[in-house]
């Protein structure tokens, strides 16, 4: 018996070792850029000289981000699609669940699409989520669920974040659905950006149609496990709990079921185009980065806002190519302020290579870490969404970005970036450093320095996974 147990233990350990090696080594073999995709970009019109039928609103404030979601869900009459990387049953995540619960109770069809790992970590034990999922008009899709069969591809995540309501409007950006990104919390939060898109026509909104088409395709992917609800009396307490939360939301935000000023509170956009990184749970071609490279070919000025930078050779070449003909500025969280230790550590290791691309780097010391992902191209195009300038977003995860032709939006985001730059330390390739007018430095204590010193060694063979 002991021999059998010992042998079984060895086999199990060998299996785990193989799983780890496959997941660590496979992402090292990155797919090359797709020349056919570049050809398709050259046939795509990203700009227009006249206003389109889709209007936009840029949402940078966390509490406003919650309110807009509640308004969209609260006024939904027919259908809701929520696709999210990280939905949690915390304070504000449960507010979203409560609003969805009310919509489900009044008969709205709801489809939830959630990343497999975070669904297992944060929702599997939530009675509120299970109660919502039990409605017959609610379907839950789990992207690449955590199962023994999928152990060799756990790296492939769904990083999309969007909400579609009544085939009339959608909200898309970089925010996850939890306390870190939503509500009026003041501790442990990140700043981020969403774009609300409202279609003023009867189904002629180009980007809305593109997003709906994208959702239908990913929903049908073999890596998505779909579960249909079946109501049960065992969720009575959870239903009551969510109803109480929703009543409190109605008292705090009294227009979430009656709001109608969608057109009034949005601005014109000439054209909006959705780009994505592929939908399969497998290695991706770098489509989003290829699009950014294409869009910046004739640019004079490019600003990249990203929480952190983790690049391989091809990605550095893209940055170098941009800076060869344009002023390239990269705004990222300073190590002293960043909320992602992996990204901060890789920056310490790779800072010289980043600067050698010719980019001016702004190490941002904002009040809160900034999770925003955006690219500004001259004074007209804004690219906003979920894509981080790292290898994971480039080669492993699903990602969505909106290419928006709107001078008003570009100006609005440029003003935000100018404020961020004033709160930053500008670092040039020649070693020159300049502190912005609003920069407030912070010195890492000995414990933090030791922490990052250890991580700088540990992460070197794992950069492709961070």
From TrEMBL:
The organism's place on the tree of life at top rank: Bacteria
Protein source organism: Blautia obeum
Descriptive protein name: Cardiolipin synthase
Protein keywords: Transferase
SMART domains: PLDc
GO molecular function: phosphatidyltransferase activity
EC annotation from Swiss-Prot or TrEMBL: 2.7.8.-
Keyword Zinc tagged: no
GO biological processes: cardiolipin biosynthetic process
Domain PLD phosphodiesterase span(s) in chain numbering: 154-181, 366-393
């Amino acid at each position: 018996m002991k021999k059998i147990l010992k042998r079984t233990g060895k086999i199990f350990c060998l299996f785990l070792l193989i799983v780890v090696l496959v997941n660590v080594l496979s992402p090292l073999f990155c797919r090359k850029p797709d020349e056919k995709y570049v050809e398709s970009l050259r046939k795509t019109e990203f700009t227009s000289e006249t206003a389109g039928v889709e209007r936009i609103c840029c949402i940078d404030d966390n509490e406003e981000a919650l309110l807009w979601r509640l308004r969209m869900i609260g006024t939904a009459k027919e259908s809701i699609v929520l696709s999210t990387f990280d939905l949690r049953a915390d304070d504000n995540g449960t507010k979203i669940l409560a609003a969805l619960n009310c919509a489900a109770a009044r008969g709205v069809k709801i489809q939830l699409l959630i990343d497999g790992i975070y669904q297992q970590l944060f929702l599997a034990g939530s009675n509120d989520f299970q109660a919502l999922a039990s409605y017959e008009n609610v379907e839950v899709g789990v992207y690449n669920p955590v199962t023994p069969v999928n152990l060799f591809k756990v790296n492939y995540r769904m990083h999309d974040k969007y909400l579609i309501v009544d085939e009339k409007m959608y909200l898309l950006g970089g925010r996850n659905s939890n306390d870190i990104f939503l509500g009026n919390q003041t501790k442990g939060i990140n700043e981020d950006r969403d774009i609300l898109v409202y279609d003023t026509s009867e189904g002629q909104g180009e980007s809305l149609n593109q997003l709906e088409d994208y959702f239908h395709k990913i929903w049908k992917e073999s890596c998505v496990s779909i579960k249909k609800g079946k109501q049960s009396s065992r969720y009575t307490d959870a239903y009551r709990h969510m109803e109480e939360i929703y009543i409190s939301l109605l008292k705090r935000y009294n227009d979430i079921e009656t709001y109608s000023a969608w057109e009034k509170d949005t601005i014109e956009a000439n054209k909006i185009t959705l780009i994505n990184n592929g939908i399969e749970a497998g290695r991706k071609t770098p489509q989003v980065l290829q699009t950014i490279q294409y869009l910046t070919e004739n640019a004079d000025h490019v600003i990249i806002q990203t929480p952190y930078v983790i690049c391989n050779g091809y990605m550095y070449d893209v940055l170098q190519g941009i800076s060869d003909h344009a002023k390239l500025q990269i705004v990222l969280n300073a190590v002293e302020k960043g909320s992602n230790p992996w990204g901060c550590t890789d920056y310490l290791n790779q800072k010289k290579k980043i600067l050698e691309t010719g980019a001016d780097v702004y190490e941002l010391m904002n009040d809160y870490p900034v999770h925003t992902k955006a690219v500004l191209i001259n004074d007209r195009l804004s690219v906003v969404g979920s894509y981080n300038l790292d290898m994971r977003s480039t080669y492993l995860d699903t990602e969505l970005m909106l290419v928006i032709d709107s001078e008003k939006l570009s100006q609005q985001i440029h003003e935000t970036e100018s404020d961020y730059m004033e709160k930053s330390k500008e670092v040039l390739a020649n070693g020159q450093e300049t502190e912005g007018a609003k920069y407030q430095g912070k010195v890492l204590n000995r414990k933090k320095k030791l922490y990052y010193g250890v991580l700088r060694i540990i992460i070197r063979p794992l950069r492709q996974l961070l």
